[in-house]
Give the backbone structure.
Amino acid sequence: DAKTTQPPSMICAEGRAANLPCNHSTISGNEYVYWYRQIHSQGPQYIIHGLKNNETNEMASLIITEDRKSSTLILPHATLRDTAVYYCIVRDDNTNAGKSTFGDGTTLTVKP
Amino acid sequence: DTEVTQTPKHLVMGMTNKKSLKCEQHMGHRAMYWYKQKAKKPPELMFVYSYEKLSINESVPSRFSPECPNSSLLNLHLHALQPEDSALYLCASSQGDRGRFEQYFGPGTRLTVT
């Protein structure tokens, strides 16, 4: 599975959009981009995933560049409860045995 | 229902004890996972079961023994653990089809080995 690179930390003001970048320059054609977050002392929570098209759900939007080498997770109106570690993962979905390898993630702090 | 349950929430065991962690999901998912997470580190994959068969073992020591009795249940049997095995153990499940590998995690079992 391809490796990902994320900034270690970011700060966002409450009510503003949080844009979390992820670099996955070695991604292959079969690999999807998945985003999870982990609030302190809880299990990780699935947010969104995509292959090449931009995706949106009730939690967030995922923007994938045309060359698929990077993506951005957008939380449109960040709240204090969005403070968490955000993980970007790429995964080969062509195999049941594909692994989801978590990197160090980005610690997002939302401030009042 | 997108819930994965794990029991117990906390476990303290001695190095000579035998204990088991239990994970359950009723979403019809066919892939189930065990992860280990140390403080301030990302989760590390230990085992993957796909359609009730072990498909990935990330070179985990034999003192950890997984078991998948049916498609809804996943156990992790523990024996002769070391203090460095103290961690949060996370279970997850996913549908297991292409494009549907989003994982749903349980709250974890916090294990302390004394």
About this structure: The interface with chain B takes residues 32, 34, 36, 42-46, 49, 51, 85, 87, 91, 93-94, 96-105 of chain A (CB under 8 Å). The longest strand of chain A covers residues 84-92. The mean pLDDT of chain A is 92. The radius of gyration of chain A is 13 Å.
